[in-house]
Amino acid sequence: MARLTIKGISKSFGFSHAVSDVSLDVEDGELVCLLGPSGSGKSTLLRMIGGFEAPTAGKILIDAKDVTSTPPERRPTGMVFQSHALWTHMDVFDNIAFGLKLRRLPKIEVLERVEQALALVGLADYGKRMTTQLSGGQQQRVALARSLVLEPKILLLDEPFASLDQHLRERLREEVRDIQQRLGITTLFVTHGQDEALALADRIVVMRDGHIEQIGPPDHIYREPETEFVAGFIGSMNFIRTIVKNGLSQHSAFPLPVPIADGEVVLAVRPESLSLAAATGKPCGFVHRSIDFGTHKVVDVDLSDGARVKAMTSSSSDWKRGTPVELGATASRVFRDNRLVYEFTSDPSRQNDRVFGHV
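Given the sequence above, the corresponding structure tokens read:
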């Protein structure tokens, strides 16, 4: 299909920098999720790729061809917006056929391509319906078909499921992933939902304040966050603020060896890496509550310093409120000034500990 190259792209609105010096390569047939909170610059970046915003600096290349100044209607991209942007005075067929008619294609070719697009998104018998007669999920399928019918080299999706309920979002994202893989189309998907990014992406680009914080496959982003921000934004994470002195964390509940320079740090421990046991001596904390998720339970523990941490336990566990407990970490990452400085894991398949950069 196509390869996308972004070189040093920036976008400013007056004195506000929405995107700052972002570079990214998206390979042929790859699905990349731009993930970040509101205001991180992900939608602005997508709109610049689609030609709907002009960059302040930098270049956008598709298959090594510079399209930075090319208007959106002449770019080999297809955009699906969060709002669907369908014409309510047209039926489904005419909504999808609109772009093909602008290209003055023969009627028989328009008919064939629209029917193929409708079948692709599971709406084969919906061509004569008005868009106002469709559910939100069906409208989003029409919006997707309208982009795909133009056979773009790159598909751009800007939070297309944000207005839909959770079950419908989950179903549609699976369908979109199946369609994307079937067509082999290079795709960028903007979302602020970590679950969507983890379920859809070949790679995730985590953005914050117009910059890229980290790029990597979903499992790498989850298991090996490189910044405190990424660690907290992807999945559930316990953050324990402590001081390192003589290579040891001074937190009473987490006296872990941390062989770095003395000073303040943040310990980051996933709930599944936090072990829980009934206290036999002085407790680390007390059970606040236990939440049953069917496959597992999450136990909230109040520490003596007022902090609260979460531990994942088996579904058969039975932790009562007020129970004194001991805690242990099977894996932790240590951050200082947002940057990763130390990692420990008891997993024998991985290196047991690593020190990163200047600590």
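Helices lie at 42-50, 92-102, 107-120, 136-148, 166-183, 194-200, 218-223, 228-233. Try to locate this feature in the token string yourself.
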